[in-house]
Protein: Cupin domain-containing protein
Organism: Streptomyces luteolifulvus
Amino acid sequence: MDRQHDQVLVVTPGDRRPGPGTPGMDRQEAFATEGTWSGFVRTEAGMVSAWHHHGAYESVIYVLTGALKMEFGPDGSHTVDAGPGDFIYVPKGAVHRESNPTGVPADIIVVRAGSGQSTFNVGGPAAG
Protein backbone atom coordinates (compact mmCIF):
# COMPACT_ATOMS: atom_id res chain seq x y z
CA MET A 1 0.00 0.00 0.00
CA ASP A 2 1.24 3.49 -0.84
CA ARG A 3 1.74 5.35 2.45
CA GLN A 4 2.74 8.79 1.23
CA HIS A 5 2.07 11.54 3.76
CA ASP A 6 0.25 13.76 1.26
CA GLN A 7 -2.58 11.32 0.58
CA VAL A 8 -5.73 10.35 2.42
CA LEU A 9 -5.84 6.56 2.58
CA VAL A 10 -8.51 3.97 3.32
CA VAL A 11 -7.77 0.51 4.68
CA THR A 12 -10.56 -1.99 4.13
CA PRO A 13 -10.88 -5.16 6.23
CA GLY A 14 -9.24 -7.12 3.41
CA ASP A 15 -6.26 -4.70 3.36
CA ARG A 16 -5.41 -5.10 7.06
CA ARG A 17 -2.19 -6.96 7.85
CA PRO A 18 -1.36 -9.20 10.80
CA GLY A 19 -0.36 -6.99 13.71
CA PRO A 20 2.29 -7.63 16.36
CA GLY A 21 1.50 -10.95 17.99
CA THR A 22 0.43 -11.62 21.56
CA PRO A 23 -0.88 -15.11 22.37
CA GLY A 24 -4.68 -15.08 22.73
CA MET A 25 -5.30 -12.03 20.55
CA ASP A 26 -5.86 -11.54 16.81
CA ARG A 27 -4.38 -8.09 16.02
CA GLN A 28 -4.86 -6.67 12.54
CA GLU A 29 -2.84 -3.61 11.61
CA ALA A 30 -4.55 -0.85 9.65
CA PHE A 31 -1.86 1.85 9.81
CA ALA A 32 1.63 2.06 11.29
CA THR A 33 3.62 5.29 10.94
CA GLU A 34 6.63 6.70 12.78
CA GLY A 35 4.38 7.99 15.57
CA THR A 36 1.17 5.94 15.54
CA TRP A 37 -0.21 2.43 15.28
CA SER A 38 -3.87 1.60 14.69
CA GLY A 39 -5.81 -1.54 14.12
CA PHE A 40 -8.61 -3.96 14.85
CA VAL A 41 -8.38 -6.68 17.51
CA ARG A 42 -10.65 -9.68 18.02
CA THR A 43 -10.65 -11.68 21.24
CA GLU A 44 -12.54 -14.94 21.20
CA ALA A 45 -15.05 -15.93 23.89
CA GLY A 46 -13.36 -16.88 27.15
CA MET A 47 -9.89 -15.89 25.90
CA VAL A 48 -7.13 -14.59 28.21
CA SER A 49 -4.13 -12.99 26.49
CA ALA A 50 -0.50 -13.25 27.48
CA TRP A 51 1.02 -10.43 29.56
CA HIS A 52 2.43 -7.63 27.44
CA HIS A 53 3.08 -3.89 27.19
CA HIS A 54 3.40 -1.38 24.39
CA GLY A 55 6.77 0.19 25.16
CA ALA A 56 6.87 3.92 24.44
CA TYR A 57 3.32 3.91 23.06
CA GLU A 58 0.24 5.06 24.94
CA SER A 59 -2.93 3.33 23.75
CA VAL A 60 -6.59 4.16 23.47
CA ILE A 61 -9.00 1.25 23.04
CA TYR A 62 -12.62 1.52 21.88
CA VAL A 63 -14.86 -1.50 22.49
CA LEU A 64 -17.12 -2.20 19.50
CA THR A 65 -18.74 -5.48 20.60
CA GLY A 66 -18.49 -7.94 23.48
CA ALA A 67 -16.59 -7.22 26.68
CA LEU A 68 -13.01 -6.51 27.66
CA LYS A 69 -11.46 -7.13 31.07
CA MET A 70 -7.95 -5.75 31.60
CA GLU A 71 -5.63 -6.75 34.45
CA PHE A 72 -2.65 -4.55 35.36
CA GLY A 73 -0.70 -3.16 38.33
CA PRO A 74 1.42 -5.00 40.90
CA ASP A 75 0.97 -8.75 40.37
CA GLY A 76 -1.97 -7.91 38.07
CA SER A 77 -4.03 -6.90 41.11
CA HIS A 78 -6.01 -4.11 39.40
CA THR A 79 -8.76 -4.66 36.83
CA VAL A 80 -11.07 -2.63 34.63
CA ASP A 81 -14.10 -3.90 32.72
CA ALA A 82 -15.43 -2.31 29.54
CA GLY A 83 -18.28 -2.96 27.12
CA PRO A 84 -19.59 -1.63 23.82
CA GLY A 85 -19.11 2.13 23.51
CA ASP A 86 -16.47 2.33 26.27
CA PHE A 87 -12.96 3.76 25.84
CA ILE A 88 -9.92 2.53 27.80
CA TYR A 89 -6.65 4.46 28.16
CA VAL A 90 -3.42 2.46 28.69
CA PRO A 91 -0.31 4.49 29.61
CA LYS A 92 3.14 3.89 28.11
CA GLY A 93 4.87 0.77 29.44
CA ALA A 94 1.89 -0.49 31.48
CA VAL A 95 2.16 -4.29 31.72
CA HIS A 96 -1.31 -5.79 31.25
CA ARG A 97 -3.33 -8.64 29.85
CA GLU A 98 -6.78 -8.66 28.33
CA SER A 99 -9.55 -11.19 28.55
CA ASN A 100 -13.03 -11.69 27.16
CA PRO A 101 -15.20 -13.06 29.97
CA THR A 102 -18.27 -13.48 27.73
CA GLY A 103 -19.53 -16.28 25.51
CA VAL A 104 -19.21 -14.23 22.29
CA PRO A 105 -16.20 -12.71 20.45
CA ALA A 106 -15.21 -9.15 21.36
CA ASP A 107 -14.05 -6.63 18.77
CA ILE A 108 -12.04 -3.52 19.63
CA ILE A 109 -10.29 -0.68 17.83
CA VAL A 110 -6.84 0.34 19.10
CA VAL A 111 -4.97 3.57 18.39
CA ARG A 112 -1.45 4.05 19.78
CA ALA A 113 0.79 7.12 19.83
CA GLY A 114 4.51 6.80 20.46
CA SER A 115 7.61 5.42 18.80
CA GLY A 116 9.70 2.28 18.49
CA GLN A 117 8.47 -1.28 18.73
CA SER A 118 4.75 -1.35 19.61
CA THR A 119 4.37 -4.67 21.45
CA PHE A 120 6.50 -6.55 24.00
CA ASN A 121 5.33 -9.90 25.37
CA VAL A 122 6.53 -10.40 28.96
CA GLY A 123 6.19 -12.89 31.82
CA GLY A 124 3.90 -10.68 33.90
CA PRO A 125 3.79 -7.51 35.98
CA ALA A 126 6.22 -6.91 38.82
CA ALA A 127 5.13 -7.48 42.39
CA GLY A 128 4.09 -4.40 44.34
Remarks:
- The chain has a mean pLDDT of 90.
- Residues 20 and 123 are 17 Å apart (CA to CA).
- The two ends are 45 Å apart (CA to CA).
- Residues 25-117 form a domain with the Jelly Rolls fold (CATH 2.60.120.10).
